[in-house]
Amino acid sequence: MTGRPGHLWIHGGRSRDRLTVLDRLGLPWWPIPVVDAHRRLRGPYTFGGALLHALVPAALERAPGVVADHDIEIRAAAPDLRDRVPARRSPLYTRLPDEERILVPAPRRTLRIANGIAEFVRDCGVKVPAIVAENADEADETDRELLRTLMRRFDPTQLTIVACSSKAPQDWFTGHAIKADLSAMEDPQDLAARYVAADGTLDDPRAPAAYHALPPAERARLHDRRAGALAATGERRHALGAIPYHREHGSDPSGAGVEALWAALDHCLGEGFLDAAADFGLRGMALAEPAAGRWWNLLQGTATALAGTGRRDEARALYERARRASLDPEVHSAAAYGAAMLDARHPDPARRDLGRAQGWINEAIAISTLLPDRAVRAFKLGFDLNGKALIEMRAGRVDAALTLVESAIKLAETDLPHGRHRVHRMILHANRAQLLGVMGHPEEALADLDAAVEMDPDYPDYHLDRGNLLFQMGRVEAALADYDDAVRLSPPLPEAHYNRAQLLLAEGDLAAARADLDRVIELDPGYLDAYINRAGLLAQLGLDGPAQADVDAGLALAPRNPHLLCVLGQLETAAGRYARAREAFDGALAGAPGLVAAWAGRAGLRYETGDPEGAAADLTRALEPGEDAALYFNRAVALADLGRRDAALADLRRAHELDPDDQDVLTALREAAPGGG
Questions:
Q1: 3-state secondary structure string, 568-628?
Q2: Is the whole-model pTM more than 0.85?
Q3: pLDDT tens profile 309-355
Q4: Checking phi first, is residue 502 left (phi over 0); if not, alpha (psi -120 to 50) or beta?
């Protein structure tokens, strides 16, 4: 085989067998980073970190500005490079003591990091023809996402991504798969010894059987030797990746295993590497003394990570385990709070149990109120009151929610030491801003968001929230500045580009809006609303082919989405496929009876097909939510065709009142007025 067949997945055999396949392809494979991606080596971003280690040193000489532009991504995925890549953007939560770092990044943060690494690879000035990831099937979820992103964003003729594994390619892979043959087996005892020395990452599928065939005493001897080697070298992976296997399945008298796993969990939770955080936490809890302080730290961090990855039942079971094992009131308060949030924050509103959440949060508040230390009480009680506010808000009791948040803010101002728990204070002000905005007090909401941004100018999310509020208030330039800041302060952030596109669409800057929507879909091909808006924009520009492609992509994500069906109806009408257009509009209105664009679009279709009566009826429905000059004008045309000249004239006059500068309306008025012509 010659040439470049696309991105590759070579599977089967051992690493040496798979690399032999690469040699036979006849591609220009040198120089190539060949990276073992097995998560047991260095945990999250085992592959991503090694790739950055291969590229950053040269990039610092050739393109130091590119390195600086991607400081967050590099420092997150390759902590060993932090001494060479200073933090140019440093949110407040990264600079606080452990007990004050209460912000857990959202699971989508890793997508931001993956896109940032991909763009660093593209722009860093170090050109390689291919990148090889060995043991891709054993990679951490962070590296799997990174591999998917690299394959999606790079043309294989420019950079070929090669995943290698002993198992078959994973479901998401769409490139070219090649099977490698397994070569002859080496001595089983040597194979088992290499398996232990590799911390269980050896890629020979026969290695586990050879390992388990050893006498227990020989297995223990090999593990002890490996543990000594790790301790002697002080390798970082002892903290973030491989913990000697026997320490996870036996005693840990020195506590070294527990502390290593806690350090790994704490690091991963702070970076948003939630799958790895849950794994480290569960492994640590198996070694820790139940109900001890570190055990509770591990349990709480693990439950937080499990909840963030959708494993809510497992998280709930851990909180129940804490309640049964501990007599510490702070543990009981925190476990009750955690259980309440599992019910209140369920992503499916139909599965939220706000009543049960209310019971749990009341228990948390009751316990926190009794804590003896004033500062501890103020922090934990404020945390619980803020959680209760979320429950009240989701139950529709916004006034009660606001009262609770204001009580938490007052506690922070009066009972917390000056300068402490700044992230807690920032979150409270941002939450009060959200409630004030819902209640129709935008100026007060803006003051709170200003306070939150002032507390941490480098935190992009509150720039995004403030931009949204400013846009709603009609302060377009200020909103645009906040959206620009959110883009600047974060690794590639689809939401900021999407919101900026909304503003640009409203301002009529269609080219800039399209560029931002293009960027959203480049960063996140699953961003449904971006397909909806771009499809509508492309149809407006007369680019029916690209608009149809966006409709198809969006409907693949949400087959009955009313907004996409509405655009589809417009496209089918323009193409003269009236039956299919009617079907699309009817489907849109069945899913969203209040969708003005669908009523207006179907009205246009009905008028086009000789049904002015139906068009006028649909336009009347379109006008129910609110007046619009264009809708009145179109209804006037339909009414005129029906001979209802007085009603048509009334519609034209109202259209003129709403939009005095519309020349089409003025012309129609002159023609429709008595004596006009």
A1: HHHHHHHCCCHHHHHHHHHHHHHHCCCCHHHHHHHHHHHHHCCCHHHHHHHHHHHCCCCCC
A2: yes
A3: 999 999 999 999 999 999 999 999 999 999 999 999 999 999 999 99
A4: alpha
